[in-house]
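To close the section, here is one more complete example, presented without commentary so you can practise reading it yourself. The ligand is alpha-D-glucopyranose.
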Amino acid sequence: MIQRFRFGTPIETCAVIEELSVTEGKLPFFDLTYSGETDDAISGLEFIYTLKDKDIVYGLGEQVRGINKRGWIYTSCNADDPHHHEDTKSLYGSHNFLLISGEKLFGVFFDYAGNITFDVGYTHRDTLRITPEDWNLDVYVITGESEKDIVKQFRKLIGRSYIAPKWAFGYGQSRWGYKDAKDIREVAAEYRKREIPLDSIYMDIDYMERYKDFTIDEEAFPAFEAFCAGMMEQGIHLVPIIDAGVKIEEGYDVYEEGVKNDYFCKDTKGKDFVGAVWPGRVHFPDFLKAETRKWFGEKYAFLLEKGVDGFWNDMNEPAIFYTEERLASVMERISELSKENLDVNSYFEFTGLVAGIGNNVGDYETFFHDMGGMKVPHSKVHNLYGYNMTKAAGEAFDRLSPEKRILMFSRSSYIGAHRYGGIWQGDNKSWWSHLLMNLQMMPSLNMAGFLYTGADVGGFGSDTTEDLMLRWLQLAVFTPLMRNHSSRGTREQELYRFDNCDACKRMIEIRYGLIPYLYSEYMKAVLADEMMFRPLSFDFTEDEDARGVEDQLFLGDELMITPVYTQNATGRYVYLPEEMMLVRMRSLMDYETEVLAAGHHYIKAELSELVFFIRKDKAIPLGAAAMNTEKLDVSTLKLLGYDGAEYDLYEDDGFTKKYDIDSCTRKIVS
Ligand code: GLC
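Output:
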């Protein structure tokens, strides 16, 4: 059952697709408590729920820390934070859905476009305290018979998740630093020479002419259409980036059209707001305005017409390097400070001033959106910005490419964006802790509707190591998005750069062998509003040990994934809530299996060994590798798992929008 409660006059987010009538009366489960921290009785209100010792709080989508969110405080305020770590409070997306399991079981969605804080037992271990910035929001409370049931009801409420083309399940290579067609051709050639499967190469901001959206640097990428076709002949899709900010430059059509038609956000004086990102000064399209979305969305045609069929939307929190006003005031203060003998206070003031220039939340109060004629400060709808950029693209793809699926994933998001694209997990680091975080985020993102997702494999910032890359691949073989991406200035991390390239190659081959299964599970999850990745406790709700597991996940109904995420470890502890079959795989041809009894085990896993489990009486289809997804042969799948088990394989053409569970499912028997 879902109940909707309304406080004040909320701003429409379009997160929910079903129009539920508002329930009058008291919100169940929560107390509305006045914190006494402010003089204003309304803004001092908070939602309070008392947690029992064993209660688990799942959810919050893209956030730091574990599967169980207890013990930390999180804020939904979409942030460009390439240096995030354990004590970060906001990442790139806002996914205000929680699922509380323990003494009571319920889900709750705070549909609220502004900043909202979730103190999940941080201040007081037994108190869940939720504080929106103002009291204009809808709250949906969902009860049901199980965790899975509640998530399913929620997912139905927010609408079917975006469906990526099948080629987007292939391996992708990316780096911020491929500066021209030659660099990209070289990457393709290196992969093909070594016969490492590859479906896509990503094009970062360098492909554009002076970082202008919907342009191509003709010198770096002459005859782009032919270049794109040439890549496609090799079975490689080019996937360009699109940024939120539009460069201010006379003669640049996107800029000029935007100014002429009032498509940009306005400043306090009603002029087009100016911020700075990669190209220097930019205007930000007002994606909350339908006309702007239509206009911007149709700009993707510029690249679609050249043969591109996938994009990633970036810097759409939006990231702002500086505003002129802030820069000027900081410069002024720094010039004053430069005359001083900096002591502990003035030195920290100085470093704080410099660090606070970029992505300063204060800047969100200085520009405005036009929502149906109403002038709304950005700070009130901040978390909807990236979502609406992706919506602009998604809606346009339905018009521009009604038959064929276009790959789309975004950095910033809000619930609702999941209907238009996937997301990647933002600018992580080449850290072992971020490998674990990649795993821990999968179920919470699935709860929020984001099924096409994954992290930058190997880590985006800082220098990766070849063992980290190999271990990361051993997780990423299972995630729908499997893209190796890194920042300029870091160690190059294309797989052929490493001495252990052969072991990496075998992991990619395993991925391709698994694609029939992964794609099938992804499609089943999308079409049934279910999760592809689940915490163990979702299936073993009463099992105390399963409820505490933070580093293993179920994938579909057949697999349990158990990656190694610790440097130099040659194995790991696993918990089996029931008997399962361990698979230790070095390559598609070289693996062994062993049935292990329920309980705690230490399993060996040398660096080049992928370890995972097949659940009791289950089997998964396994195919042969191929150089790209198009060449996968699904007619010769064999079953890996328990004798006599069968598998229902969902399989469609992978690129049209004709999805149908009944006509596309067939039984694989051994
Ligand atoms: C942002 C993106 C990253 C990209 C970079 C340059 O940091 O998150 O993926 O490589 O911008 O465009």
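Once you have examined the tokens, check your reading against these statements. DSSP finds 14 helices and 39 strands in the chain. Residues 2-158 form a domain with the Immunoglobulin-like fold (CATH 2.60.40.1760).
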